[in-house]
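Our platform keeps sequence and structure together, in a single record for each protein. This encoding replaces a full spatial description with a residue-level series of whole-number codes. We quote a single record here, exactly as it is kept in our systems:
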Amino acid sequence: MASTGSPVASTQPALPSGPAVFKTIPYAFILPEILCGTWVWILVAATSVSYPLVQGWVMYVSLTSCLISLLLLISYLFGFHNNSENWKVLDSLYHGATAILYMSAAVLQANAAIVSEFNSNSALHYPLNCAASFFAFITTFLYILHAFSIYYQ
């Protein structure tokens, strides 16, 4: 029997490039991750970082995650992945690890909000800390959704 010479069709869907990134799950989560993470950083910075050790970690996680996610989004938009399966592994590992880091940051930020409630100069800091906690948990949820939804493609 002679081989037909046709390549075997891949069962894996192609990775999106260009505007299709914004229409494809889980890659559509990248932009909301960046936006919510940016709000975390802005809101914590607006509190004048009342608790430097705790909120310094929150700012580090949020800013670093925003920058790396932005680079990942740009790489998907310009198609730097070349449909490599390694990008799915990289994407899943990055978003899984970032979800864990963001969970720690969200819990620490919630602690900072609780502590700032009873502080004498907390008239403005308490609501900002609460809003930062809210966005930190939303961002954590987005990173978890992104990490797990790669497996269900």
In short: Residues 53 and 82 are 41 Å apart (CA to CA). The mean pLDDT is 83.
